[in-house]
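Re: [ENG-882] Designed sequences occasionally contain unexpected residues at chain ends

Forwarding the minimal case from QA. Structure tokens:
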């Protein structure tokens, strides 16, 4: 997730306006910032790594000429936060500038082709292929708009793009696929932005760009066309009445709810891992004698789920371990044949960094999975993957859990293929299922949110909850319990369901709420016995269940459905969504702020 902004003023200098707009978008990314303007046949660029205020103090972002320009604030996914990797990116001639939000899947293939054709690249980003593609088509005699269309039609992945060319200074060309894009108009200018907050002080008249569309902004005019057949799209502008704070949250009352609803897009981005990086981590894991999955909090729950994946798919034992316990529990066992796969959203979690520093001293191989390129974890890892879910502002992690599991599932599947432990037919089936998970999550959000809210009204006065699951669903139950505990402050307990008989069942009395995570397949049959055991002692059972499982529906007091066909190994991703919503609505109903739970911080940077 990044923030892009573009503007054509009827008169005046555009750079200060773009600078202010980017400040309103800084919540979308703060690794680097840059602005490009077109003036008098030339392209003028200022950019660097760091927060906007710091870069502005050094470079004076307002001091760029011209009434046409584009800007960018970055959340890194390809290439560390450096000046070279900052946007805007230019072509070889320095006449085309592009800013981009999204992930281009096929950039490596395009880059090889362009390098073979004589193009010289200056960054490690996926974005830089776009200005070079445009330059290539300009060299074939196409105009700027036609070159942009031809270039964009070669891209695979997600993108919101804004592009300018010093040879046609009165244009800003934009395109969208999956990543958000909105156009605004006022008496003095036309604008384009990743998000409405950047537009609010400038205009309330906006039109939303849809997937597969290109927009040409020029001299107060906005023309939207379909990329496929170049047909003009007629779409009315609408008035936006949001406050700035509402706009940052896209109309949602809290960042946590917004981020829960962002999960379908984040999951699609998490599927867009580069094969080279997946293969590199896979080779490290394959040659290891001991593998530890190291994390804290939500990331530990994702690792716990992943341990089932590695065992089932790869016939490989991995040890999920809470980072703060790692040295005392396993420190003396770590050696040169050990591999530590450290998982941290921020890449700066103190317990994780302390543990891997110890493991490095013992000559272990360090691998990383993080959401923050340029973090300490990326710098100390031999190789790492990015979960690619963008900034998460709510303290309680939501899209982090689902994105990390999506990445770990792909890693386990790639390792299974390398080790020859799974048939090609099974691999093909699971890869197809992985592709379908974002759509399933979107369906759960659309169809079950109101049902979850009503369940909260029914159970909001209970003083304690159980969360139970078997197999990989015990990890889902752990994460559901953590969410409820940390944002609504309700004491909550999670067990593997079979273990509940060894102590925890003593708490059950009439009306005690127990949430079972009960996907189809796997250990569902034995889970039915656990449901009956607790029902017999008076528990009120809520089940997160396959929509076609009439047997479980008939046994429980309440249920929330997940579409069928989800393999048990992938079930934590869609099955955690009702639990996230349950925790969110419970916090709100009890007067708690889900974005700022007491005593908690987003990144724990002390031991």
């Amino acid at each position: 997730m990044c923030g892009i902004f573009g503007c054509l003023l009827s008169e005046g200098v555009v750079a200060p306006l773009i600078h202010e707009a980017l400040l309103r978008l800084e919540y979308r990314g703060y690794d680097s910032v840059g602005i490009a303007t077109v003036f008098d046949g030339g392209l003028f660029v200022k950019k660097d790594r760091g927060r906007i205020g710091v870069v502005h103090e050094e470079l004076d972002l307002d001091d760029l000429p011209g009434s046409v320009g584009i800007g960018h604030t970055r959340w890194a996914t390809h290439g560390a936060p450096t000046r070279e990797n900052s946007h805007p990116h230019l072509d070889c001639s320095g006449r085309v500038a592009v800013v981009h939000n999204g992930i281009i899947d096929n950039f490596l293939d395009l880059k090889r082709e362009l390098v073979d054709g004589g193009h010289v690249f200056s960054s490690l980003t996926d974005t830089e292929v776009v200005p070079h593609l445009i330059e290539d088509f300009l060299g074939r005699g196409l105009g700027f708009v036609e070159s942009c269309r031809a270039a964009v039609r070669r891209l695979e992945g997600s993108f919101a793009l804004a592009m300018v060319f010093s040879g046609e200074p009165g244009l800003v060309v934009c395109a969208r696929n999956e990543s958000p894009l909105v156009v605004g108009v006022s008496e003095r200018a036309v604008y384009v932005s990743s998000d409405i907050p950047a537009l609010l002080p400038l205009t309330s008249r906006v039109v939303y760009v849809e997937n597969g569309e290109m927009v040409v902004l020029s001299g107060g005019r906005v023309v939207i066309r379909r990329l496929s057949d170049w047909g003009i799209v007629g779409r009315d502008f609408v008035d936006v009445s949001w406050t700035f704070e509402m706009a940052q949250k896209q109309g949602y009352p809290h960042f946590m709810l917004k981020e829960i609803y962002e999960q379908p897009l984040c999951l699609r981005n998490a599927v867009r891992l580069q094969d080279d990086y997946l293969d590199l981590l896979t080779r490290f894991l394959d040659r290891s004698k001991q593998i530890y999955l190291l994390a804290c909090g939500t990331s530990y729950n994702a690792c716990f789920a992943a341990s089932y994946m590695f065992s089932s798919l790869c016939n490989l034992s991995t040890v999920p371990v809470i980072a703060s316990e790692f040295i005392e529990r396993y420190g003396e066992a770590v050696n040169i044949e050990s591999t530590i796969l450290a998982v941290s959203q921020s890449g700066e979690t103190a317990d994780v960094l302390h543990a891997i520093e110890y493991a490095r001293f013992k000559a272990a191989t360090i691998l990383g999975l993080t959401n923050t390129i340029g973090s300490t974890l990326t710098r100390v890892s031999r190789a790492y993957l990015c979960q690619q879910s963008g900034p998460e502002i709510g303290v309680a992690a939501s899209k982090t859990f689902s994105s990390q599991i999506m990445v770990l599932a792909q890693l386990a599947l790639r390792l299974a293929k390398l080790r020859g432990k799974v048939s090609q037919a099974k691999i093909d089936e699971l890869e197809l299922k992985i592709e379908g998970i974002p759509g399933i999550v979107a369906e759960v959000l659309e169809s079950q949110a109101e049902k979850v809210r009503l369940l909260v009204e029914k159970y909001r006065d209970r003083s304690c909850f159980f969360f139970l699951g078997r197999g990989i669903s015990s990890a889902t139950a752990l994460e559901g319990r953590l969410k409820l505990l940390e944002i609504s402050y309700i004491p909550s307990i999670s067990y593997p369901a079979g273990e509940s008989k060894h102590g925890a069942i003593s708490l059950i009395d009439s009306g005690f709420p127990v949430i079972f995570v009960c996907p189809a397949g796997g250990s569902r049959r034995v889970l039915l016995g656990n449901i009956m055991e607790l029902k017999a002692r008076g528990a009120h059972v809520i089940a997160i269940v396959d929509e076609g499982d009439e047997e479980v529906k008939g046994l429980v007091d309440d249920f929330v459905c997940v579409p069928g066909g989800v393999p048990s190994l992938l079930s934590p991703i869609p099955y955690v969504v009702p639990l996230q919503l349950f925790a969110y609505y419970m916090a709100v109903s009890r007067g708690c702020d889900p974005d700022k739970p007491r005593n908690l911080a987003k990144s724990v940077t002390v031991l």
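QA comment: On inspection the terminal residues look reasonable. The two ends are 30 Å apart (CA to CA). Proposing we downgrade this to a documentation issue.
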